[in-house]
Write a structure and sequence with these properties.
Chain lengths: 286, 286, 314, 314
Amino acid sequence: MDFPTINPKAQQFDAEVLSNKRVGSYNHMVFSVDEIASYARPGNFVAISVGGPGTSMVLRRAFAIYRATVKPDGQGLLELVIAPFGNGSTWLANRQVGDLVNMVAPLGTAFGIPTEPVRALLVGGGYGSAPLFALAEVLKARGCRVDMVLGASSAAKIYAPLEGKRSVSSLTITTDDGSAGTHGRVSDVIPGIIASSNIEIIYSCGPMAMLSAITNISKERGIMHQCSVEESMACGIGVCMTCVLPVEGEDGVVRMTRTCIDGPVMDGSKVIWTKSREIPDGVWGK
Amino acid sequence: MDFPTINPKAQQFDAEVLSNKRVGSYNHMVFSVDEIASYARPGNFVAISVGGPGTSMVLRRAFAIYRATVKPDGQGLLELVIAPFGNGSTWLANRQVGDLVNMVAPLGTAFGIPTEPVRALLVGGGYGSAPLFALAEVLKARGCRVDMVLGASSAAKIYAPLEGKRSVSSLTITTDDGSAGTHGRVSDVIPGIIASSNIEIIYSCGPMAMLSAITNISKERGIMHQCSVEESMACGIGVCMTCVLPVEGEDGVVRMTRTCIDGPVMDGSKVIWTKSREIPDGVWGK
Amino acid sequence: MTFDFSTAMAGARFSNPILTASGCAGSGKELSQFFPLSELGAIVTKSIMVKPRSGRATPRMAETPSGMLNSIGLQGPGIDQFLENDIPWLKEQGVKIVISIAGESVEDYAVLARKVRGVAGITALEVNISCPNVENRGQVFACNPTTAREAISAVRRNIGGEVPIIAKLTPDVTDITEIAREVVDAGADGLALINTLLGMVIDTNTMFPKLSQKTGGLSGPAIRPVAVRAIYQVHAALPDTPILGMGGVASGRDAFELVLAGASAVSVGTATFGNPAAAMVIKQELEEICIQRGFVNFRDAIGFAHRAEGGDGE
Amino acid sequence: MTFDFSTAMAGARFSNPILTASGCAGSGKELSQFFPLSELGAIVTKSIMVKPRSGRATPRMAETPSGMLNSIGLQGPGIDQFLENDIPWLKEQGVKIVISIAGESVEDYAVLARKVRGVAGITALEVNISCPNVENRGQVFACNPTTAREAISAVRRNIGGEVPIIAKLTPDVTDITEIAREVVDAGADGLALINTLLGMVIDTNTMFPKLSQKTGGLSGPAIRPVAVRAIYQVHAALPDTPILGMGGVASGRDAFELVLAGASAVSVGTATFGNPAAAMVIKQELEEICIQRGFVNFRDAIGFAHRAEGGDGE
Ligand SMILES: Cc1cc2nc3c(=O)[nH]c(=O)nc-3n(C[C@H](O)[C@H](O)[C@H](O)COP(=O)(O)OP(=O)(O)OC[C@H]3O[C@@H](n4cnc5c(N)ncnc54)[C@H](O)[C@@H]3O)c2cc1C
Ligand SMILES: Cc1cc2nc3c(=O)[nH]c(=O)nc-3n(C[C@H](O)[C@H](O)[C@H](O)COP(=O)(O)OP(=O)(O)OC[C@H]3O[C@@H](n4cnc5c(N)ncnc54)[C@H](O)[C@@H]3O)c2cc1C
Ligand SMILES: Cc1cc2nc3c(=O)[nH]c(=O)nc-3n(C[C@H](O)[C@H](O)[C@H](O)COP(=O)(O)O)c2cc1C
Ligand SMILES: Cc1cc2nc3c(=O)[nH]c(=O)nc-3n(C[C@H](O)[C@H](O)[C@H](O)COP(=O)(O)O)c2cc1C
Ligand code: FES
Ligand code: FES
């Protein structure tokens, strides 16, 4: 049997901070890496150890890859968008140019790219926009039309850099407090865009409740939905079993499935979006 | 009853690193403080929290004050000599100019200064030399003759800056490996200096075995011996009872005595220098 | 509306729920240099025994990841000197006083209770039964339901009805609710949870145990998850018995965690070694968190994590 | 002289003493991307049960100071699929295999032992008895001398004489030496110490326990002092019973500490989550430390902290 395993390109290495800039509520950080950058696909993530020597933080933190590029001289760059939140992300956001951090990358599944040009809607919540810009570029290069919706609690939490916006045909912003764009949630504006742009596929990344709401919308309309989920991860490499979601497999059986290996990008229609804190009935081995 | 309590001048404050220079095996660090510097006496120490946010190190580290000065503009300076050893001291030695560290200072007892000019011998082991230079200056100012012996395992571990040497009449160095000065231990050279310089009081700071050996020498000769001891300290402020030594009180009773409050400077002849890991017979409450 | 930060445990009332932990506040005088002791809900004294005690030989401590081991061995002057010297000074400070006692035999506990009974102005008695029982092969009182009961009964019979008894338990047992029930049944008015966990550090240089007594008590943030679990379990089993929570509290968030689990008040121990003002910082942070979470009375937060889980987003 | 890093436990021989900890190495395949599994002393598989198991609902983990809580709930495919899918691949890697089994009843342990008996090339069987016994109000087998004995006896009777049995104990008991004696008496050839400590984290935002199952197992450096103490105590009580040590090992120094306390081999668990190559780093560091301390045979270091203390400077 060929059981699922981690991204075959994943390696562990130290990466140097090349740049660290505050953008709204986030830190945009650039790391110097080697050719590993060429293996990263939109949707992949990195797992970073945080805290330095003597830290009390024993677990890595996962961050979506915002952009991965290889410069003509062969130097690879990995860019991340960090929301300083708890001790781990705050430590990372405080790294200075020249500091080294230990990474494992690239990890996880990537967004599937259609072979034909399609009309795609990309939906990001908060820092969930991070992996969408690189995805938009790939889609544009394939001749796709790309609409984008970004939502957050307030304006400062919308991450949408200029150069990113260039690759999308339309950008709609929603904020819970109305401080930017439409006052409301992404799910309020998505149906309209689907209709007006004749969307064929939705790509999303953000809080689980958002992904679940988008799944409902896409299922109703029979639209494909690839979402990047975010479950608490202790290891990021498939060895701890903390990051699971109930997901229907190809054999129709619902299993508690590791989102660090079989995700973070998953087919939204296969995920059983129950309340967390419960194993849904019918899950294998319940 | 007037029970012993902590240095009445002790305060807790953040201090900025003004300078951090490698000297041999040590880091000489200067911290900016306020008028607290004027309360520090030779022999006092500071307790510093180490590790920063998210650290696994829950205890402060104690460091002898190398020098405390108040500049004409009122700025106070506290200087320390740090041996990067474990996680805590290494973290401290890695602080950069401009960083803040949290201190409690000044703590503990100070070396007693004779009212009359006397012939004093100052003996330091390793970074134990740190508090002796400030002491030498005070003694010189009082008209004392000051001889000094510094010992360490090897040359790089002798801390004896130029400006410090100025305040002593003679400086003898011993190293265990003979890489500087006399090949041997401080206790090998002390008897000769006592005799030749007609020493009336010994001040010492260094490993417990050294202090114990000096106590033997001074007791035999009926010379006063004030030593700064170094027991593992969890709090530095007298609340944890981890830093005790068996010491004879004025009432002749030997009690397990806190070296952070009744020390670190103690009368060597009153300390019961047994092997550690045993409570000597006759200790109160054994 | 002003926030009511006061709390109570078995008749003992505290203006706020932050206390010191036994053995972690010296005689009180040392800490008073950093804040007025009267700002504390109460000071809990070091555990005092019948006779003077030298405690253990050094090394008495070892730092561990997010914690420390100690084997102080209850160094102290004995109950008579303690009542004569320490208590009057504490009373002058206007701080509520919880006396902690520790015995080596059931009779010791009886003697200590009688001595404390005679003293006016004591808010509560914490009975540390996490001590070796010399009459029972040195087994810790709180490790055995029978000896735990005997120690608490001895205190109950001798203390009279004025001073509430808080029994302090060790987490090093198979079922802490069993011991809790036993001591409450024997007359404890409240419980102090948790004492340190038995641990050891080996010095990899000398290749011997670091502490002179080999084992020591593990405290600090490392043990907080064990404290929260013990408090939660005991509060679920004995919802009417007030709990003085402790174990790794280093911030207002941590104190709040223990309160949500079921603690009516919180003692701060090891955190004071890292920060002499820890109790004050924690007190202020806890008050802010309670207010932020919408509590009007601190007491409404006690055991709040035990409510039924709602269907909403939680 | 070359350093002999090999070790043995009850007839099972390992080229070096560093193993993975059960439940912390996935199926092995994931880690094999970071180092050849054959570099390990052995791989210890996740605990496998009779039937497929979904495990617990999420959240299944919470980070804690220098540690973490988990409540995976033994998710797995059940023994049949496991033996069919996972074991053949592991055998191809040339790594020694220790199968960990877990049951909900004494009969489960018997069934599992019979299944494993039929499989060639298994180096040892780790019997995780830190699981709730559904036939005894969900009390954990290893928390009770009788049920601990019954589970191990069932394995002993069914496994045959070839494969050594290592009983894995929980530290959440009043006296771990009592349980250790009981299971050794019941036929365990070795002991695995320690499993996780029962803990809880309350999310101070939702004000509910963070894990879906409320409590979880505490692991990581936070618990190392408890592991060292348990290993030291059990090695003192049963010097002839080999111990597979684990609990918070994150460096060669840490592994050495457990070895000095009495561990014949050391499993690495939580550290692998922070560093996929942890086992390899620890292995190399441990070898260096052993050599530096003058050991020619790794085995001479096992339990070295138990020797009589010398008079010299120590
Ligand atoms: C696949 C994936 C991609 C991510 N991408 C990004 C990104 O691009 N930018 C960004 O800022 N953050 C991202 N995160 C979240 C990030 O990994 C951290 O969880 C977050 O920064 C909080 O960590 P902390 O140390 O600051 O907080 P702490 O509170 O100290 O975290 C404590 C522990 O809980 C876990 N945890 C707590 N909440 C969450 C949560 N909601 N989701 C996952 N783990 C949690 C953490 O991993 C950590 O182990 C991503 C997470 C995942 C799983
Ligand atoms: C009164 C006093 C004055 C001191 N002055 C200086 C000084 O001027 N310069 C200097 O470099 N260091 C000094 N020290 C030692 C210093 O406090 C630290 O113990 C040392 O730096 C090691 O800490 P660490 O964090 O690097 O090592 P770690 O191994 O991480 O220390 C772990 C713990 O053990 C304690 N500890 C371990 N060994 C010792 C020891 N031999 N003595 C005391 N505590 C110990 C530490 O305080 C800490 O709590 C002094 C100690 C005391 C008590
Ligand atoms: C140095 C030290 C001394 C202690 N002395 C006592 C004591 O005398 N009596 C007692 O009941 N508990 C004693 N304890 C336990 C604490 O009161 C407290 O229960 C434990 O340390 C957990 O809390 P913490 O993590 O906040 O320290 C002591 C703890 C430490 C660290
Ligand atoms: C995520 C996770 C899963 C675990 N699963 C198992 C298991 O299936 N069987 C078992 O016996 N122990 C299991 N354990 C316990 C470990 O094997 C080990 O005993 C414990 O974590 C202490 O070691 P550590 O601190 O190195 O992690 C698990 C621990 C963790 C953290
Ligand atoms: S995060 Fe460990 S298995 Fe997914
Ligand atoms: S270091 Fe705490 S009492 Fe001296």
